[in-house]
Amino acid sequence: MKKYWNEKFETMPVEQLQEFQAQKLRETVAWLYERVPFYKQKLDEKGVKPEDIRTLDDIRHLPFTVKNDLRDNYPFGLCAVPMKDLVRVHASSGTTGKPITGPYTAEDKAQWQECMARTLWAQGVRPDDICQNAYGMGLFTGGLGFYLGVEAIGSCLVPTGSGMTERQIMLMQDFGSTVLFCTPTYALTIAEKADQMGVDLRKLPLRVGSFGAEPWTVEMRKEIEERMGITAHEAYGLTEMMGPGVGFSCEAYRLHLNEDHVYPEIVDPTTLEPVPLGEKGELVFTALQRRAMPLLRYRTRDITSLRRVECDCGRTLVVMDKILGRSDDMLIISGVNVFPSQVESVIMEFEEMEPLYQIRVFKKGHLDGMKVEAEAKPAVYAQGKEALEELARRISARIHAVIGIHAPVEIVPQGSIARSEGKAKRVIDERKK
Ligand code: DLL
Hey, how many other C-beta atoms are within 10 angstroms of the C-beta on 185? Predict the structure, then answer.
């Protein structure tokens, strides 16, 4: 069977790929200039004409797009095609205000399907697999995005959607699901519920997971692999670019970006200047082949870095490091920048702990303070107050050593931390009260 879904693009020599990207960039800028007043005005203001964009380096002359531009032009003000040309509209799961819309033409949907097929194929999904899709099935791009990938490959789809965890486990057993799609924190919720039901997931046919939609650490991946007896792969994406399918982990656990569809840059979030490969900054994407709502230099707020590596899998597509977090989720504690994922890494070093935690942020004088609440394994919790306080002190000391901040830790009773069925909420902000 073929090794790559799309060998040509997944293994294209970088120079050739960059020529292709430059061509698609020119086409996209021209497409937007003619059709989207917002972009015409932005380019005119900068004195840039589509014909000025010749090479990939010229992308520096293009304006950035931010989330508020999408909100201000809600729902379809940035659309380059009439509604009659749309075949699908998704929207972000944003909790406040108006959502971000993701409209697709038939061509956009076909490209999304291609990117999802690459994702699943790279992760070992084959036609005889039974794929239980426990991502939210609706406006969220997760559920219907993975569905497209499964359909392209021709495996069997079980569209459970998220939630009703006991039933997920029952169906997993009865149908013999071999692949699971959901957020990493929902995978943990499923694993915990299976334990409570006395079901050993490691004995089931389940062998692969494709998890994403929220930050998770390598330690968390190993925990899921161990508890489910599977290989835990990763999917990355955002509504504004297509949904999942923007990036996928390969057999070497490296996350490759579908660079022929999305052109990535990393910029310094304050100066907006590009940073060199390997350095951390804000991830910015330009859509290269979309028709309905291609965005130029969209600031994702995700903090990560990019690398050109010779990957063992043979793909030449650029590699993205794990997302540290979103710049909006970054906490500043006593002058130190902290992402919840860093706290997660420390907690997961402790065998006594469950991967269940939350961070409370509060006002401490003029500064912000934080407290970590986390659950221990039931047998550890049963050891009583003194042992737990000692464990909490050790974790707190380790947080100080690794991250450089003072954060008290409390080991809370089992069930205190809300179980996630989608994107977990890690930070409880008490500053606004
Ligand atoms: O979460 C799309 C998706 C669905 C990706 C299913 C993967 C799997 P949004 O709801 O628009 O879209 O949220 C996008 O989620 O900017 C990141 O902050 C975060 N995110 C997505 N995937 C990952 C990941 C979907 N693998 C936002 N690691 C993005 C870390 C992720 N963060």
Answer: 25
